[in-house]
Design a protein that fits this description.
- Helix content is 30%, strand content 26%.
- Strand 11 and strand 12 form a beta hairpin.
- The longest helix is centred in the last third of the chain and has 19 residues.
- The model has no long low-confidence stretch (mean pLDDT 98).
- It binds flavin-adenine dinucleotide.
- Flavin-adenine dinucleotide (FAD) binds next to strand 3, helix 4, strand 9 and strand 13.
Length: 296
């Protein structure tokens, strides 16, 4: 039935789609369907069909902040990769939800626009990153975002201003209300010489290469830093570096990273997360909070 609907509407889709290249842990999970709407009207049409027929769905960005806990999802995974336009009008920049944040940071830098330097090594797409309020180096999306075009729970396209998005640290109205989808975002940046911006970005990228296990699959920092503490330091002091469960391993290079060293499943990663949380709780009485999202 879903297949007929996708075919009838000429949507690009994959049935029983391998998700290994759609999550940065490279967990070998599968989805009943993966579909790529061509534009916003397609997104609305697909959602209307799925809701009317009670099919479960989820929007997937670059899969760089998720843990796929199941081997198989009887769901439709919707990817907005085709909403991949960038429009630059002086210092106002608009990007579709499917644009890579790293590409946006680079493109704006090359146009002598400053403000997205923090995003130069965050491997997410614009849509999810607006919802997550992605950030680094004490800056985040909420510092530069003017407004977002959003599909609301009634399938209407509405504009949320920055203040309506209720931004907090790695959190927003959109993150709390999963039925709302970010379709497009508009940013206000500052004029600055591109060479200066690019130098800062490359020094930050080099530092990450030195300090983070970027040659292995991961989804970035596992836990939020507790107030005035570093999650990585607590984990390291519990001697948990290199602790391994079926291929999921606490990184030797940075203890707040779990890497998929050798064919780990999502549940192996989750088991390792629980082990780390329990050890840190036992030794330091600190409750670590997961930064990544477990997809059930
Ligand atoms: C090596 C590495 C380094 C990282 N460094 C950082 C960092 O410095 N700072 C940081 O903040 N993060 C970092 N991350 C985590 C991650 O890149 C960010 O959280 C990123 O914003 C997630 O984007 P994504 O497209 O991969 O989202 P996904 O992981 O695909 O999805 C995340 C959530 O967003 C939802 N979603 C997807 N699309 C939309 C949409 N259009 N509208 C609303 N919700 C949507 C999904 O359903 C899911 O709930 C890092 C990850 C890695 C692997």
């Amino acid at each position: 039935m879903i297949k007929d609907f996708f075919k009838l509407n000429n949507y690009e889709f994959i049935e029983d789609a391998p998700l290994v290249n759609h999550n940065t842990y490279h967990v070998k999970s599968k989805a009943k369907f993966l579909v790529y709407p061509n534009n916003i009207d397609d997104v609305i049409n697909i959602l209307k069909f799925l809701k009317d027929n009670n099919f479960e769905y989820i929007f997937l960005g670059n899969g760089s902040n998720i843990i796929l806990s199941k081997d198989y999802y009887d769901k439709v995974f919707i990817k907005l990769d085709k909403l991949n336009y960038i429009k630059i009008d002086n210092n106002i920049v608009t990007a579709g939800a499917g644009v890579s944040l790293i590409k946006l940071a680079l493109d704006t830098a090359l146009n002598n626009l400053s403000g997205l330097e923090f995003a130069c090594a965050i491997p997410g797409l614009v849509g999810a990153s607006v919802a997550m309020n992605a950030g680094a180096y004490k800056s985040s999306i909420s510092d530069v975002l003017v407004s977002a075009k959003v599909l609301n729970d009634k399938l209407e396209v509405v504009t949320f201003n920055n203040s309506n998005l209720e931004y907090e640290y790695r959190d927003s109205f959109l993150k709390k209300h999963k039925e709302y989808v970010c379709l497009e975002a508009t940013f206000k940046l500052e004029n600055k010489d591109s060479e200066e911006i690019l130098n800062l970005m490359s020094s930050r990228q080099e530092r990450r290469l030195d300090t983070q296990p970027l040659s292995y699959p991961s989804a970035g920092s596992v836990f939020r830093n507790p107030p005035n503490l570093y999650a990585g330091e607590l984990i390291e002091k519990c001697n948990l570096k290199k602790t391994n469960i079926n291929g999921a391993e606490v990184s030797e290079k940075h203890a707040n990273f779990i890497i998929n060293k050798d064919g780990a499943s999502g549940s192996d990663i989750i088991k390792l997360i629980e082990l780390v949380k329990n050890k840190v709780k036992d030794k330091y009485d600190v409750d670590l909070i997961l930064e990544q999202e477990i997809i059930k």
